[in-house]
Every structure is written in structure tokens, then in C-alpha cells.
Design brief:
There is one protein chain. The protein has 9 helices and 6 strands; from the N terminus they run H-E-H-E-H-E-H-H-E-H-E-H-H-E-H. Helix content is about 40%, strand content about 15%. A 6-stranded parallel sheet has the order 4-3-2-1-6-5. The protein has helices spanning about 5-15, 30-45, 60-70, 80-85, 90-105, 140-145, 175-180, 190-195, 215-245; strands spanning about 20-25, 50, 75-80, 110-115, 150-155, 205-210. Helix 1 (about 5-15) runs parallel beside helix 2 (about 30-45), helix 1 runs parallel beside helix 8 (about 190-195) and helix 2 (about 30-45) packs parallel to helix 3. With about 250 residues, the chain is of the alpha/beta class. The chain is globular and about 50 Å long. The longest helix is centred in the C-terminal third of the chain and has 29 residues, at about 215-245.
């Protein structure tokens, strides 16, 4: 079975010492799942970045502190343009407020946009007017990564080729280049096999959503069914956006 904590451990063991890996987690909900993956990573000697949203289903101060105590970095998973319905000035105020609130718990130098697939707004557009660097932020993965050198892979859609149904968690231009090079993987076993055969890229940014990874069969099944439904909706949204551009 894929998307179990057992399989996640296998993936980390395969990746260990393989190449240069930025390990990133989007804590969209179920922060207790993130604590489980953080403990596995700590045990195996990994350090990751955990991005927390400023919503009740993600924000858990006790878990944020415990994950930080394991040596992991904490970042802010912002969605301010969606929250403020496209008002860029109000969105910046919202962003600053939530960033400061998170910084009262742990140090924060990294931020990452939350996709909000049903929203018409892309929160990265906030930085067309404002500068996160002026706020002491040093890293926004989508804006500060050289994707000509770094391969990006994510479990969006509860699969490793979820860019096909993703509204925003994709890398324009380079996604097509990686596809041409056949750097596409569907399951965790596909990745592990590519690593063992030394054909997996060596410079990687890997994103997971810990809510999807569970050894509890009930939670695992519910997440699978919910994600399959979401993927249908995402396909419709992606198709509609493509039609609008034509």
C-alpha cells in the first residue's frame, strides 16, 4: 500500500545520502499526522520544512513547537489573497498579522503559497506589489528555487504525478521538460525503484502533505476517497482554465 507511514519511511531510507534533497511539507490539515512524519524524519536524521496554514484545521501551537524541537524548520503556508478575496492591501495586512503570530511561537524565515484550487486568486501575486524579503523572509519555494537545476516532485492529488490534476502546484515550462525526459513517477515504489537504479534526479525538492500518509486503514481509506473526489473537481477546474485561455 502506498501513502502509509511505513512506505514514507521506505522512501526516506532510499533517498538518504542519494542527492541534495529539500524536504518540504504542506500542513493543510491534520497536524497530528505531521508530527508523526516529523518524528520519523528525526529518527532517520532528516531535517524538513513544515508549512502551517493560519486556519484551525492546521494551526496547532503545541505540535508546531514539538516539530520545531525535533530540529525541523517551521514556515507559514499563506493564502492571504484568497482569504481577503483578491484585495491585495488587505491581503498583505493579513499576511503580516499571521506571520507575526507564528513568529511568537517559533522563528520563521520561510513561507510557501497555499494553492487554494477553488479560488480565482493566486496568493503569490501578493509579491507583485510587496516584498517578503523586507519582512526577513529568505525563502519562498516557488519563487526562490532554480528549477533549471532542481527537480520538483509533489504528492498533490495523492499521487506523484498529480501535476496533471493540480491547479497551482506545478512548475510551468520545466514540467514539460521533465515530462520529455520521462521524469514522471506515479507511486512511491516508482521513485524508490528509480533511486535504486540511479536514474532519479539528484537535486530535488520534494513536497508531501502529511494528512495523506497514515497506517490507520480507516483514515487511509477516507483520505483516498476524498482525494479521488477532489481530483475530479480539479480536472474540471484545470480544463475550464485551459478553455478560458483559448
Amino acid at each position: 500500500m502506498d501513502f502509509t507511514l511505513k512506505k514514507y519511511r521506505e522512501l526516506l531510507v532510499a533517498l538518504k545520502d542519494y542527492g541534495n534533497v529539500i524536504l518540504r511539507h504542506d500542513v493543510d490539515k491534520k497536524p497530528q499526522n505531521s508530527l508523526k512524519t516529523a518524528r520519523i524524519e528525526h529518527e532517520l536524521g532528516w531535517k524538513a520544512i513544515y508549512y502551517f496554514r493560519a486556519v484551525p484545521e492546521s494551526w496547532n501551537e503545541g505540535i508546531i513547537k514539538e516539530i520545531a524541537s525535533l530540529g525541523h524548520e517551521i514556515g507559514y503556508h499563506y493564502e492571504s489573497l484568497t482569504t481577503c478575496k483578491g484585495n491585495i492591501d488587505a491581503a498583505y495586512e493579513d499576511f503580516c498579522k499571521n506571520l507575526q503570530r507564528l513568529r511568537t511561537i517559533v522563528p520563521v524565515e520561510s513561507i510557501c503559497m497555499h494553492g487554494s484550487p477553488k479560488s480565482p486568486w493566486d496568493s503569490k501575486d501578493l509579491w507583485k506589489k510587496y516584498s517578503y524579503k523586507e519582512l526577513g523572509i529568505t525563502f519562498e519555494p516557488y519563487l526562490d528555487t532554480d528549477f533549471s537545476k532542481t527537480f520538483y516532485i509533489t504528492d498533490t492529488g495523492r499521487r506523484w504525478d498529480g501535476y496533471k490534476v493540480s491547479v497551482r502546484d506545478k512548475i510551468p515550462v520545466y514540467q514539460d521538460i521533465w515530462l520529455q525526459k520521462k521524469l514522471t513517477y506515479h507511486t512511491s515504489n516508482d521513485i524508490i525503484s528509480a533511486i535504486h537504479n540511479s536514474i532519479f534526479p539528484h537535486d530535488i525538492m520534494m513536497t508531501t502533505h502529511p494528512q495523506r500518509w497514515s497506517d490507520n486503514i480507516v483514515d487511509w481509506t477516507i483520505e483516498m476517497l476524498l482525494q479521488n473526489t477532489k481530483n475530479i473537481i480539479k480536472r474540471i477546474l484545470v480544463k475550464n482554465k485551459a478553455n478560458q485561455r483559448q
